Amino acid sequence: MNVTVDEEKCCGAGQCVLLAPEVFDQRDDDGVVVLLSPEPAEEHHAAVREAAAVCPAAAIGVR
Amino acid sequence: MSVRDQVLDYPIPNDAALDPPAEWAELRSTCPVAHVRLPSGDQATLLTRYDDVRAVLADPRFTRRLTAPDAARLSAEGGSVFSGEFAQIIPDGGEEHQHWRRLVGRWFTAKRMAALRPRMARIAEDLVDELVERGAPADLKAGLGFPLPVFVICEMLGVPADDRERFSYWSDTLLNLTRYGQDEIEAAQGEFFAYMSDLLAAKRREPGEDLLSELIAVGGPEDGGLSDLQILVTGMGLLVAGHETTANMIGKMVAMLLADRTRWESLLADPSLIRTAVEESLRLDSNSGFGLPRYLREETEVSGTVLPRGTTVVCSMAAANRDEDVFDAAGEMDLRRSPNPHLAFGAGAHSCLGQALARTELQVVLEVLLRRLPSLELAVPVAELERVEGLAVGGLATVPVRW
Lengths: 63, 403
Ligand code: HEM
Ligand code: SF4
Prior knowledge:
The complex is a heterodimer of chains A (63) and B (403). Chain A contains 2 helices and 4 strands. Chain A is of the alpha+beta class and 63 residues long. Chain A has one domain (3-62): 2-Layer Sandwich (Alpha-Beta Plaits). Chain A is globular. In chain B, helix 7 packs across helix 8 (182-205). With 403 residues, chain B is α+β, with helices and mostly antiparallel strands. Chain B has 15 helices and 11 strands. Chains A and B meet through helix 1 and helix 2 of A and helix 3, helix 4 and helix 15 of B. The structure holds protoporphyrin IX containing FE and iron/sulfur cluster. Protoporphyrin IX containing FE (HEM) is lined by residues 57, 64, 101, 153, 237-238, 241-242, 245-246, 249, 292, 344-346, 350, 352-354, 357-358 of chain B.
C-alpha cells in the first residue's frame, strides 16, 4: 500500500490521526497532517482506508 | 402533489423528534435540486443528495457571503450566525481563511484532544455524581449535555465557566433563526461583544495558558497573527460553536441509543463500539438544524441543473447522510458501520474545526454513562420527546431519563 497526503488541502480535522495514529500525525504548530509511514504495514491498511474515506478534505490518497 | 411541482417551505416541518421528514427520500430520488421558501419568504435551492452536498461544500465557488445584496435572507429578522457582520470578520476562503484556520487549528488536533480526555472524563464523572445525588428522573441535557462542553470550551479559551448562563443566552440569540426579535438579538450581541472585549483586555495585562492568551501572544497581522477584532470574534465564535452544537448532540445521541434499548445493550456488551456508535449517531441525526447555506458567485451546474449566479443554496447534510446510494441500509442505525463518511461536520476547507473535540466529548459521555448508569432508559415514550424550534442548530427540548 502506498499512501500520500495533500498538505494544502488538509483542514486539520485530525480524523486520520484518531483512526491510524501509527501512520498519520499532525504538526503541533498548525494541525496539518504529517505522514509517518507512506508504506504502512498490513495491519494498518484497514484503518488507513477508513481514514481516506472519511477525511473531510479528501486529502489522503491510497494506492 | 409531489415535491417536484411545488415550492416547499424550508425548514420542512417535522413533528417526530428522531425520525426524518418523509420528503427527504422523495427529494433525493426525484428532485435533488429543489426550490424552497425560507422563513424570510425568499427562495433558495435545496440539495439533498450525498454527492451534491459533499461537492458543493468543498467547492469554493459556493461562498459563505450571505450578506451579498441578492443572497436569500434566511429569516425575516435578518442577523443570524450565518449572515451577521460577525460572520464576515473571519476570512471566508482562500489563503486568508487557511491562515486563520491553522493559527487556531493547533488547539484542536487529535493529540491535544487525547491529552484533554482524562480531564473531560473527570468533568463528566462529577456531573453524573450530581445527577445521581438529585435522583431520577432527570433531564440528561440540562444535567450533562449542556454543562460538559461548556466547561471544556471555557477551560480551553480561559473564560470563567461561572458566566455560562450569560453566554448560553447570547449564543442562543446568535444561532436564532426565528425565535428572537431583532432588538433582542442586537442587544445580546452587544453585551457579548463587550464581555469578550473586557476579557481580552484582562488577558493582555495578565496572560494565561489558554487559547486566547496564546492568540494574543502571536502578535497582530504584521507578525503573522490576527487583528484584535479577529481575535475577539474568534473567541465569540468558538464559545458559541463549542457548546450549543455538542450539547444538543449529546442529548440526541443518548435519546437515539435509548429509543431502541437493544442499542444500549449492545454497547454495554461491547464498549469497543463506542467510536462507531458516535459516528452513526452523527450520521442519523435527523434534527441537526438548518443545514448549510451557500451563495453562488458564478453560474454552475449541480446534478444536471444549471444554477444561475446569485443563487442561494441550502445543503441538507442530514438528508445527504441518509442517501441509499452511499450508505447501505441508510435508514437503519448500525452501531458498527465503518467507514462512515457522514457529512455532519460539513466537508472541504470549512469542515468543522472542532470535530476532534466534539467526537472526543461524545465518546467520553458514552463511556462514562455506560459505566456509571448501565440501567439508563428514557423516562418518557419516544413520541413525547420534543424538538427545539427556531434555532440554526437542532436539538431536543429535554431528554428525560431514569436509571
Ligand atoms: C457535534 C458537534 C458539532 C457539529 C455537528 C458541528 C458542525 C459544524 C459544521 C457542519 C461546520 C461547517 C460550517 C460551514 O461549512 O459553513 C462547522 C464549522 C465549525 N465548527 Fe463545528 N460542529 C460541532 C462542534 C464544534 C465544536 C466543539 C467546536 C469548537 C469549539 C466547533 C467549531 C467550529 C468552527 C470554528 C467552525 C468554522 C470552521 C471554518 O469556517 O473553517 N464545532 N461545525
Ligand atoms: S483527516 Fe484529512 S483533513 Fe483531517 S488531518 Fe487528516 S489529512 Fe488533514
